[in-house]
Amino acid sequence: MKEILKAFPRVMGIVNINDDSFSGDGTLDVAKALATARRMVLDGADLIDVGAESARTNRGPIGPREEIARLLPFLDGFEALCAEAEPRDDLQIWPPLLSVNTWRPEVVAAVLRTGKVHLINDIGGLVEDTNARLCFEYGAALLVMHTVGEPKVPHTAQRYADVWEAMERFFDDRLARARRVGLSDDQLVLDPGIDFAKQRDDNLAVYRELERLQRYDLPVLLPVSRKTVVGEVLDLPEPADRDAGTIACLVRGLVARADLFRVHNVRAVADSVRVIAAIRGYGGALVR
Q1: What DSSP letter does each residue of 70-125 carry, written as one string?
Q2: Which end of the chain is more exposed for a tag (fewer CB within 10 A), N or C?
Q3: Is the domain covering 2-279 a CATH 1.10.10.10 domain?
Q4: Model-level pTM?
């Protein structure tokens, strides 16, 4: 996983199987969700990240049974979807990898048991090691995201004396926890958790010094798409209006050598990555 993610900036398309996504792009219709994934794959997505529960804290949680029931039909259909499609170009990971965005161990176990999932995008902060153990058992990769407290709970009162000091302590602890259960560096991805338990200035501070994550020598996922911090800077309350700001965050991430960009507008980001690569003199590997 590490080698393939670091070979070229990768694009992760977001698919929401819910009816309360903050960006308004969710659906409970699995056929529509698969159609969205297909369009993203054709537009150049290297990975599809599917989630069945919105991370919004002003919406109640769903139970693990409902989450699993929403996810499994999508996982069943994704392989066939890729078999009928063709890669955009020779830069794209093919077939695209499949990621599941969740945090509940019951859900992690159920989706990994299918053998169709390559990455668990754990938004729970790895407060204990069950999800890491499951990834080790099934040979999947694990994304470790910085956050504070439980998902689906507002953290607007969270304050940091130094957000980077707090984040580095967090990653030192969580990576040690993941490695203790057997996960190798090839199975670990970092996410600074933009907008999760962070206020506007915290998020901007994370972007400002993003190069600091390179000390871990692991793939870095940057969730740039339509984030609240973009809306706050540009005074854009509607997430769908934030794609230009998203591209600005993408460029900052590329400068800081982030590896993977989680987005709604795959076409715009995949195009941007390829133009920047050409400017830098791409010739088999991005000049970074």
Answers
A1: HHHHHHHHHHHHHHT---SSTTS-SSPEEEEEE--HHHHHHHHTTT---EEEETT-
A2: C
A3: no
A4: 0.92
User: Contact, 23 vs 264, CB < 8 A?
Assistant: yes
Residue 139 burial (CB < 10 Å; 0-12/13-18/19+)? exposed
The one-digit pLDDT tens for each residue of the chain (288 residues) are 999 999 999 999 999 998 866 665 778 899 999 999 999 999 999 999 999 987 755 566 778 999 999 999 999 999 899 988 999 999 999 999 999 999 999 999 999 999 999 999 999 999 999 999 999 999 999 999 999 877 756 666 788 999 999 999 999 999 999 999 999 999 999 999 999 999 999 999 999 999 999 999 999 999 999 999 999 999 999 999 999 999 999 999 999 999 999 999 999 999 999 998 888 876 444 444
CA 218/CA 246 separation, integer angstroms: 23
